[in-house]
Specification:
- Strands 1-2 form a two-stranded antiparallel sheet.
- The chain has 16 helices and four strands.
- The two termini are 30 Å apart.
- The protein has 427 residues and is mainly α.
Length: 427
């Protein structure tokens, strides 16, 4: 394992995992300190990080083509976990905060929607890289994608897990831009989405009962209403976010380590960014955002090295979508730019399911990068071999040092070095 960490190719990405792990543990510890709680969550998160890194290390033992083949099995397994929530007794899957989206195994809890997200990323990446998919019309492409994405989306929405349910919508909209060839298709779909958002906001303002008729829960509606008119709900639904914003303002330019005036529930999870803004101020929050920005740029650099249109190419792009969605939705909710949705920040917020799921994505990306570097080195070796091969001047047609094979006419022929190439980037 030590050699795995010391490897420069791996370390260039793993350094971000180590930075995130240190930041997460520090922020969770500060959240417990600010709210006068004993640091039990800090210790649990440390164990989750050890497990997550162990998974990253184990994934390096599996070739990328095997990971691609297992995408379907992983997707089906995630669906079984999502369906199982409704089949197991309430003691094993209790209702928490209005949502039944967790397995409670006493020693640990498991949120299947987190694994449903990454399984869908893997499944979609395998689908859209196929030539048969690319040859379809935009309509057929979107129907196939909608079928794969809608199944976990419906199950997660049925669990009342609105935050993770929105991820599947975001993923579909990103895929619309990625796979569609015609500008008219993009314009029509995005126009419908914008119009839908406008209708929801207007209905929440003037006809809130209509939203409840179409399936929106009362607490979800109240979150929207309290976001639109926080003063009217400052004693109940907007009380929490009001306290969070007060703590953010208290941080100022350089931050403060004064304890919270009032207890803030889930500050170590949904509102983890308020810890950054309060304790380290505007300067610390800016540095934190800059580190995440550099991390995303690093992933885009890896994408450039992939053969465009293969599994690795799409997998990293969709992983970037997953990281960015959770990261910015968490920040926007904390700053009340959007209603509180309840999504954890990847690698930072407390939670084993989210961290393990994101560690799986991270581990596969590390494996892709290592594979690309190995293949580049392999191609470079054979390029150099060919140059030396072309420069050799033979005194006669036969060289006993060259690999030769005998054909049916008992003549010898030379094996070209080009036949030894094994680069998977171009397959």
């Amino acid at each position: 394992m030590l050699n795995f960490i010391k490897n420069k190719t791996n370390l260039s990405i793993l350094i971000f995992y180590f930075i995130f792990s240190f930041s997460s543990l520090l922020f969770i510890l500060l959240a417990e300190y600010n709210n006068n709680k004993t640091p039990t969550l800090f210790l649990k998160q440390f164990i989750f990080y050890l497990i997550g890194f162990g998974i990253i290390y184990l994934l390096q033992k599996i070739p990328i083509n095997y990971i691609e083949k297992f995408s379907i099995a992983f997707y089906l397994f995630a669906l079984v976990l999502l369906v199982g929530i409704f089949l197991v007794p309430p003691t094993l899957a209790p209702i928490v905060n209005g949502a039944r989206s967790w397995y409670n195994f006493r020693l640990f809890t498991l949120q299947p929607s987190e694994f449903g997200k990454i399984a869908t990323v893997a499944m979609v990446s395998m689908l859209i890289k196929e030539k048969s998919f690319k040859d379809n019309t935009d309509t057929i492409k979107l129907l196939k994608l909608a079928l794969i994405i809608s199944i976990p989306f419906i199950l997660v929405a049925k669990e009342n897990d609105l935050g993770n349910g929105l991820f599947f919508i975001f993923l579909f909209l990103g895929l619309v831009f990625l796979v569609c060839n015609k500008g008219k298709t993009l314009f029509r779909i995005y126009s419908v989405v914008i119009a839908g958002l406008a209708i929801i906001i207007l209905a929440a303002l003037y006809f809130p009962r209509l939203l409840s008729l179409v399936g929106l829960k009362s607490y979800q509606l109240n979150r929207i209403l309290s976001w639109l008119n926080p003063e009217a709900y400052k004693l109940d639904y907007s009380y929490q976010i009001t306290q969070v914003l007060n703590e953010v303002k208290l941080g100022g330019l350089t931050g403060t380590f004064v304890k919270n005036k009032n207890y803030i529930d889930e500050q170590f999870n949904d509102f983890i960014f308020s810890i950054v803004a309060k304790n380290f101020g505007f300067v610390g929050a800016t540095i934190f955002l800059f580190i995440f920005f550099i991390f995303i740029l690093r992933l885009f650099n890896i994408v450039k090295k992939c053969e465009q249109g293969n599994y690795s190419y799409y997998f990293i792009l969709l992983s970037i979508c997953s990281f960015c969605f959770s990261f910015f939705i968490n920040i926007f909710s904390t700053l009340s730019i959007i209603p509180v949705i309840g999504i954890s920040m990847p690698f930072i917020s407390y939670g084993g399911s989210s961290l393990i799921a994101n560690s799986i994505l991270f581990g596969i990306i590390v494996k892709i990068h290592a594979t690309i570097q190995e293949e580049y080195m392999e191609d470079e070796y054979y390029d150099n071999y060919e140059e030396e091969y072309d420069e050799i001047k033979y005194e006669d047609d036969y060289d006993p040092l060259e690999p030769v094979y005998e054909n049916n006419n008992n003549r010898y022929y030379e094996e070209e070095p080009q036949q030894f190439r094994r680069s998977k980037r171009k397959r």
